[in-house]
């Protein structure tokens, strides 16, 4: 009986010690400095110049890395065929000093049926 009481007390003490634990996982945007964003934007602008129409989504992502945002949907074309549309957004310009990336700070990269059909605002508007 006494050993059960000691074990219960030890568990209570341990649980009190752990109840205040907070674990922070991931890389938060606010932790990155202005210099980081400048380098990322310069890199993304440079890599955009390496894109070629007709590349696959996988080829672009291998070259460019992970997009800041992505969107995808399917639509029916004039001949009633389904087309998969995918848009990746890469940060290329700084507009706000708030430490958060927004779509207006990104260049869209547009795919139709997994094939690169363009990048920039004009390509986005045409889909």
Please explain how this structure is put together.
- With 127 residues, this protein is an alpha+beta fold.
- The protein has four helices and four strands.
- The protein has a four-stranded antiparallel sheet with strand order 1-2-3-4.
- A hairpin with a 5-residue loop joins β1 and β2.
- The longest helix has 17 residues.
- It starts with a helix and ends with a helix.
The low-pLDDT segments are: 5-28
- Report Rg: 24 Å
Shape summary? elongated
Instruction: Characterize the largest beta sheet: strand count, sense, and whether it forms a barrel.
Output: 4 strands, antiparallel
Read across the widest sheet, the strand sequence of neighbours is: 1-2-3-4
Helix content, binned percent: 25-40%
Number of strand segments: 4
| Strand-residue proportion | 15-25%
Calculate the mean pLDDT score and round it: 80
Order of helices and strands: HHHEEEEH
Number of helices: 4
The N- to C-terminal Cα distance equals: 74 Å
| SS-based class | alpha+beta
Summarize this structure as a short list of keywords or feature phrases.
alpha+beta; 4 helices; single chain
Task: Describe, in short, the structure shown.
This protein is of the alpha+beta class.
Which helices and strands, and how do they pair?
Blueprint: H1 2-18, H2 34-48, H3 57-64, E1 69-76, E2 82-91, E3 106-112, E4 115-119, H4 121-126
